[in-house]
Amino acid sequence: MTPVAAGPLRRRAGRLVFEQVSGGAEGRARRERIHATPGPRWFPPDSAVARVHGDAAMFVGGLRALLLQSLHPLAVAAIADHSDYRDDPWGRLGRTSTFLAETTFATADDAQRAVDVVRAVHARVRGTAPDGTPYTADDPVLLDWVHVAEVDSFLLTHQRHGARPLDGPGCDAYLAQTATVAARLGVLDPPRDRAALGAALDRHRPALARTAASDDIAHFLLAEPPLPWPVRGFYALLAVAAWASLPATARAMIPLPGHLRAVVPLARPGGQAATRAVRWALAGDPPPAGPATHPTS
């Protein structure tokens, strides 16, 4: 058998990974617009937020964020009532990844447009949780929780699995930079350093609980992910790394499927190996080189 050249194999793997999470040809066109359109950006290309959001560790961080967010009864009610995560999980993932890419890498105008779209969607999302409590997606408490769960997850998993972990000041810079986006989304006083992030997590902890809806999301993400069987073993490394990185109180509320329990001792090295593999693949299909730009003031 003729060996497959490393270059074409890597490019093909990169295309498959990118198209799976970003929407095929449409995702490729969006990536071209985000990275190649000239104009000032909110953040420079060497910023802490660009380093974190551009790394393959986000695959673990995204799973962790979803699991953690689902433990807030009102947040998970909004997801269950208004999200199409079961019918179109990759579409939802693509929209989330596009928002992060636009606010991190796109021009300032496109980044603000992405924020405006999300705020308009939030204004329409409202309902009643199973216990009778009303909710709205633009409730400052829920906005704060969603943001806190995301940045805690993205930063922690980057420090564990990222190619270039941040130093202490870099971690605080990441939180300060993401706080500027959160404030535009309506979050009141988002955490801007590690001390404030820890205080925010403590503030939300009493409201967290295991519910039928959180169990459903955990089962969907951990037990029956929307993937073909040949790649589920690889995905399991990412999923277990995400679950194992949660606080002990959160892990106690999120059931881990039996077939994944044996993998828990390998969570950290397995997560590192999986993210290295994703990073290797994505390097074969990199985004276009952007024009010379400068951050907005």
Overall radius of gyration: 19 Å
Neighbour order of strands in the largest sheet: 1-2
Distance between the termini: 57 Å
- Largest sheet, strands/sense/barrel: 2 strands, antiparallel
Total beta strands: 2
What spatial form do the alpha-carbon principal axes imply? globular
| Count of helical stretches | 15
Mean residue pLDDT: 90
Describe this structure in words.
- One of its GO terms (molecular function) is oxidoreductase activity.
- InterPro entries: MPAB/Lcp_cat_dom (IPR018713).
- This is ER-bound oxygenase mpaB/mpaB'/Rubber oxygenase catalytic domain-containing protein.
- The protein has helices at about 5-20, 25-35, 50-55, 60-70, 75-80, 90-105, 110-125, 140-160, 170-185, 195-205, 210-225, 230-245, 250, 260, 265-280, and strands at about 125-130, 135.
- The protein is mainly alpha-helical and about 300 residues long.
- Helix 1 packs across helix 15, helix 8 runs antiparallel to helix 9 (about 170-185) and helix 12 (about 230-245) packs across helix 15 (about 265-280).
- The longest helix is centred in the middle third of the chain and has 22 residues, at about 140-160.
- Mean pLDDT is about 90; it is low at about 1-5.
